[in-house]
Structures are given as C-alpha cells and as structure tokens.
Amino acid sequence: MTRGPTTEVTPMRNAIHRARTSLEQRPLAAAVGGVAVFLLVLWTTPASWQTSTLRFAVPIALAAIGGIFAEKSGVINIGIEGLLIVSAFSAIVVVDWLGDGGATAGLPNLWWGMLIGVLVSVLFALLFAVVCLEFEADQIIAGLAVWLISLGLAPFISRILFDSPNTVNITRFENVTVPVLSEIPLVGYLLFDTEPQVYLMLAGAVAGWYLLSRTTFGRWVVASGENPKALDTAGVDVRKVRYAAVLLSGVFAGLGGAGFGLGTLGTFAGTGDTVINGRGFIAIATYLLANYHPIGALLGSFLFAGLNSMQDVLQAAGYAIPTELIRTIPHMTVIVVLVFVGRTRLPDAAGDHYESGDD
Q1: Largest Cα–Cα separation, the chain
Q2: Residue pair 105/127 in contact by the 8 Å Cβ criterion
Q3: What's the whole-number mean pLDDT along residues 224-242?
Q4: What are the CA-CA distances from residue 48 to residues 57, 279, 312 (Å)?
Q5: What residues form the membrane-spanning segments (predicted)?
Q6: pLDDT category of residue 30 using cuts at 50, 70 and 90
Q7: Topology of domain 49-341, per CATH?
Q8: Would you kindly state where each structural domain of the chain is located, as residue ranges?
Q9: What angle do CA 330, 69, 221 make, to 5 degrees?
Q10: pTM for this model (two decimals)
C-alpha cells in the first residue's frame, strides 16, 4: 500500500492552515483598535495632513502587498524599490511622449502612463524571477541587482530624454468624487473625494487579502512558501506558482510606483535615491510588521506615510530641527518597529530553491 502522496499532502494542509490562521484569526480587538485609532487621528489632525498621508501611502501599501505574494510563495523580492523606480519613471515618460493632458485611442494619456508603468514593472519582475527560478541565483543579491539597475537606469535615460536626471512636470490625476459618500462626516472627503491611485490602493488591499486567503491560487502560494514538496506531490507546479506570485508583485509595485508618479508627484526626480527614496524598503518593513496580511500592510503604510507627511508639518511649523534629521524620522521608525515587532515568522521555504522531484 502506497502512503507517499497522503503523507506529503498532509504537511501542505498544515502549512496552509498555519498561514490562514495568521491571515484570518488575528484578534478582533486589534482590528477594532486600528479603526478607533484611525478615527481619532481623523478627529485630531488637519485635513491637509490626512490627504497627504493617504497619497504618500500609495507606493508603500501597494508595494507591500506585492511583496507579500512573492515572499509567501518562497521568493524574497527585495527589488521592490527598483520596481517602484522604473514604474514611476516610465509612467511619466509615456505621458510626456503621448502628450500631457491628451488622450490616445480614447484613453487619457495618464492611464496609458499607468498601464505602461505597470508593464515595465512586470518585465523587471519577470527578469528577477527568471534569474532566481531558472538560474537559481541568490534572491537577495538578485533583488539588490534589480534595485541598483533601476537606480542607475532611470536617471541615465532621463538625461538622454530631458538633459537632466529629473523629468518634466506633467498634469496629475484629478480627484474623483463619489456622490453622497463624499458627504459622510470625517471620512467622506478623505476616502470618496480623492485621486484614482488612492482608490486603487484601497481596492488592491481588499483584492490582495481575498486572493491570498479565499482562493485556490492563494492556497497554492502559501503552500509554495511553506512546503513546496507537498504542493508538488499534490500535482501543482511550484515553479509556475512562484512565477505567478513574483509577476503579481510586479503588478502591485507597478500600480504603486506609477500611481505615485502620476497622482502624487507629477514628475520624477532621479537625483540621489530618486523620488522613491527608500519607500520600497519601507514597504518590506510594512508587510513584516503586518505579518504578511494585506489589510495590515495597508494600515501599516498609513503609519509610515503619516511620519513622512510629518516632515512637512514640522518644517512648516518652523521648528529649529535640521532638515536632514527630520527626513530620517520614517526610516528610524522602521528600525524601531522591527525591533519591537520581532514575532513575524518567515515562510519555511522562503529563499530556498526547489526543483520538482527534490527530496
């Protein structure tokens, strides 16, 4: 009597159960507390700071959700910073090339910029996936390579096109107002009278949670990162699942980068760490803080984005604090949060290569 498949599928079920527990069985008090804090912040802070926080959260939240899919599948994608860079840059370039404020084939050029930005991000994610999954390169080194290539390539192309590491300014996305809902006290003007990339962020968080915790594909992603051998024994191609998860991380990061460039900034600055300025790395800290929960990553992004907006508040208030010190606030907070939130459990097979038939 053969027992192999049964003994292998059981670990896969256990792995899925552990992951679903982390996604579904968070204490209800934490969710209620998060909502309470959110409402308190809305009640006590100026509207300008709130809207700024929401816009700055876009690249962090969407990149974090993308990173969750990649890492839950067993592929550590620290090149998310690079994906944000190339998507933001390419989106601005496309809009400028097609014509700022115009439309092509019936679609506003801003949306063409968004689509191309996402496509470029996916292409870079595919390159990363091929290097890691086909050539079995070290995932950390490959991710750093994606970031460094993006960090140098975007300003280089910008110098060719614009004679400067910075692009031209373009018209940004305008607010989209939802009738009736925009009149809701406290949250109406913030959530239902805002720019398209904010709606994409909110929808992306819900879609990411549903896809990861309520679909067969999500269960495959979880099993791929926890026990790929059991998933393989069940007849699912681990490599295809990991490819799909990494490409999905490219989609989310592309939405975040392009949305940030087209909706929040309206330009791309290629000097220094570029206009992305470490937001991809903050996104990694965000999903670790959220323990790989997409909704938690969304809420965590508000924390870091709020601290980023605080820079402008402190500077406008005239506090005699050096600008360089103020700019370190979000990054210092990342370190503090990771020190005190040390219970995040990485997927068992994260960073490990797998070949079908491996023992």
Answers
A1: 78
A2: no
A3: 95
A4: 14, 21, 11
A5: 28-46, 52-70, 82-99, 111-133, 140-162, 198-222, 243-269, 281-305
A6: very low
A7: ABC transporter involved in vitamin B12 uptake, BtuC (1.10.3470)
A8: 49-341
A9: 155
A10: 0.89
